Amino acid sequence: xxxxKIKELLQSADVKAEVYAKxxxxxxxxxxxxxxxxxxxxxxxxxxxxFENTSADTLKRITTGxxxxxxxxxxxxKGAGQRFEIQVKELEILGDSDPxxxxxxxxxxxxxxxxxxxxxxxxTNAFGAIMRVRSVLSFAVHxxxxxxxxxxVNTPIITGSDAEGAGEMFKVTALPFDxxxxxxxxxxDYKKDxxxxxxxxxxxxxxxxxxxxxxxxxxxxxxxxxxxENSNTSRHLAEFxxxxxxVAFNDLEDNMDLAEDFIQYVIKYxxxxxxxxxxxxxxxxxxxxxxxxxxxxxxxxxxxKLQFVLxxxxxxxxxxxxxxxxxxxxxxxxxxxNYIIDEWGxxxxxxxxxxxxxxxxxxxxxxxxxxxxxxxxxxxxxxxGKTVRAMDILFPGIGEIVGGSQREERYDVLVEKMKALGxxxxxxxxxxxxxxxGSAVHSGFGLGFERLVLFVTGMTNIRDVIxxxxxxxxxxx
Length: 477
Ligand code: ATP
Ligand code: MG
Ligand code: MG
Ligand code: MG
Description:
The protein is of the alpha+beta class.
């Protein structure tokens, strides 16, 4: 007899004479009530053990974390909360869990402690919920683009270029740790390395993606991205997943429309498909909010916050307008920003971004037309010669969630820009080919998948929305 998932059992139309379930014990009360979970749902099924007919040894081995199988009748549950429970006839211990040693006892653990046990934290309700939401969200990403006819392109993970020019790359080498070949002037001789040149883990699939968009029309990548971020923040990982659509014949406005439509679609999808998990996470957050002083509590509960994003357009504001707002604002009664923007051309700090989103507009914001000198080389220069057709989407509680742009399609302008920035044209000869042969207006964006999961789950640290976080000094697993 094949076992049935607990989610299915709980959704049964009626009682059943015999069911078979397997899972892990969450709690065992009064030598009688097992709360069993198998990961298919946030809900445990209550299994009522027949302790008269169960050996003392077996009863002792029903401990938190143990894997068990139960056979019995699915009956109406008298207790509050659930329609069904299992009246156990046979119980088999599949895998013991020593209660003295199992770290995930049912009590409130700090997130810090749970991070140190990333392989076990998924056994808690919160992390089970987060990981199911993450999974459904990634399916929604594919569904959105596939429905619209985008081609999914797997851009390379090992690359020879630094798309962002931010110098945050992890090097890839097959050179031996000692005996590394050197050039005459003592530098590492990458010509003798595996690929015959310097290579690194990708920081973005955009440049390769553009070349495919200029043949397939609309493409997207969704893959792991690596950045040697040298600071420890709650928004940055060294390994994260990025969603990067790229569309030929789309300008910046089309790009904003696409990003907004996409984000609303995937959030709507997950709100419908993960109602139970999100409700659980909302409850968890409300508990946390209660610990905070009134003034610091968030105004909206999680599901209301998600609905708000679905029901309201993102506010579109130019960089120049944003600077004016920031100059004329007082973030708190008499306080100033730590970092005062008094000159047009400065990059916004996250305190400014969050002020715009959370205090001023009180909704997601799309900032566009940034100064050229603070953005990457490939962005389309505006006719003013000073700004580029760039956009960042800012979300409450998160800050930047999307960075995108219309790309510079004019060969000469692009080459000028590269020269000015000291970017080697020969290195990017293949990229420049898209501007040599059949160039056209095109645009795209990059959305950090974990930042989206952060927003949807209401979590506040990016380490808590990816299975095994990679951050400075931390690659334990
Ligand atoms: P930030 O300003 O937050 O460092 P960025 O401007 O460097 O981000 P982009 O190069 O614009 O990032 O990348 C596109 C998107 O990828 C960002 O909007 C963000 O959602 C996500 N992202 C960038 N760096 C990271 C990271 N280290 N960890 C997680 N997500 C990231
Ligand atoms: Mg960055
Ligand atoms: Mg940024
Ligand atoms: Mg950016």
